[in-house]
Amino acid sequence: MASIFLHCTTTASSPPSTKLHPLLSKPTPFISHASRSHRQPLHISSCVIPNQKNSSDYTQGKLDRRNILLGLGGLYSAANLISPESASANPVQAPELDKCGAATNLNNQKVLDINCCPPIQGDIIDYKLPPVHKLRTRKSAHRLSPIDVFKYNLAIQRMKELPEDDPRSFMQQAYIHCAYCNGAYNQPGQGDLDIQVHNSWLFFPFHRWYLYFYEKILGKLIDDPTFALPFWNWDNPKGMTIPPIFLDSKSSIYDSKRNPDNLKAVVDLGMTKIKDPMQLVTNNLTVMYTEMIRGNADVYDFMGQPYREGTPVSPGPGSSERGSHTALHVFVGDPREPSGEDMGNFYSAGRDPLFYCHHANVDRMWTLWKDVLPSDKVPDKNITDPDYLDASFLFYDENAQLVRVCVKDCLDTRKMGYDLQRIDLPWLDYRPPIQTALARIKRTSSFFPKASTLFPLKLNKIVRFEVQKTKKGKADELLVLEDITVDTTKFLKFDVFVNDEDDNALELDKAAYAGTYAQVPHKAPKKTSTTSIRLKLTDLYEDMDIADDDSIVVTIVPRHIGSGVTIGGIKIIANPPKA
Ligand code: C2O
């Protein structure tokens, strides 16, 4: 294993090949579900860490780290740990394009195979960020100048005019998301374990690189290296509708597959379906505050849980991914379409130009989180684990050159050549009001069932139960929801409240709101995956004056219809967790 890993050059197994787009040619790299081949572990990443170039040190580091990981049994869900059989902890490797198989989706209750494999052309080059001469400034899509709008439309128009087998064409760019998210790729050398770029620490870096090349391609098509994608500023009341530039049916950035009821509506980041626009704005700012500031105890709670080679997909999404990010996919997707196309399912999301504008704001959240979160909230906002830094993906750059990129090269947007228009952040001061009056529920907490009697819990209605704190007076704690098994083909969402007397809280702007789980529908079959989330309770205890209690009353409110989520267990742990 070690010696394979150390030859840090391009693929040993896939000789350079030039093939036409799978839709246009045969034979094709598209492999149907049943016959996808799972041979050979020889795909090699070159994303090594510069200060670990010495090969033996690097190997040693890997092995040591694995031992440490194995010792952390209680910290993360079992799905997250390296199984003793796997040779070592390694980063998730870029896919082998020639082994791309069918992506899948559930369409009118039938599993549908989708061919979204990319064309394969040329050798893979390890991507080096070019020197930056002038920064590209990403601006709010609600504040673009007419010339910015014109350029944006022209660039997308030209992308749509590229031949379909050009890897930079509009549909090929959309297929990238389908392939990485609906199960077209296996992890190299790891049997039929999928590559999935959601619900883990790969979420932010993958999408950052994806948008980076998308933006560079658009800039090249209009011969403007300063072209920057606009962001949908949904975290600010002034940006809380679909940006009007996307509603002109004659423009190239229009998409007819959007929810007609939401074209001019205030966005619903809380996914409560409440109608009052004032309350929606309040909910939205509370959701932002909770997922950016209040609800996370460590960097993984925000970024997503560790995801390594040989481990199952979806170890746990970060707060931003499962919150505002998911909400807008669902808000825009068209309920008249079988799978909420385009935005409402990962396989089709990239077909709506609004998707990239949405993700430009998701990407902005990563930057803002690092900038504005007080460091006493989360001690370290960077992930230094080599399995994160060395994870890699493949894209085609603006010259249609196939390139391999590493997570570690996308951590600084200015080195990538872009920065952000500065806009005020009203959610920063949205800590919910102190809510100490709810003494009733404290006194009656012992009348509620104990958590231990209810779990595993099939979540199809509102549940309320008592959970024991780690100890009386412990002020710094986390609520852990473990082994959340989800049907990946469905929209699912639930909110968690603590000591709340309201039965179906549609107003989220209160101290009792602890956080959210939500997912965008994606691949089928193998329809379930198991994930976990953590919600920090420290500020909530303070806001509700309940740090001294022995136990809390948790309410879980599902926002989806029907079943689809089973929560394996729930518990409170001390923060920081004991190693
Ligand atoms: Cu890759 Cu918003 O999804």
Automatic annotation (TrEMBL):
Pfam families: PPO1_DWL (PF12142), PPO1_KFDV (PF12143), Tyrosinase (PF00264)
Cofactor note: Binds 2 copper ions per subunit.
Domain Tyrosinase copper-binding, first and last residues per copy: 198-215, 352-363
Paired cysteines (S-S): C100-C117, C116-C178
Cofactor dependency: Cu(2+)
Family listed: Belongs to the tyrosinase family.
PANTHER family given in the database record: CATECHOL OXIDASE, TYROSINASE FAMILY MEMBER
Protein's recorded name: Catechol oxidase
Organism: Salvia divinorum (Maria pastora)
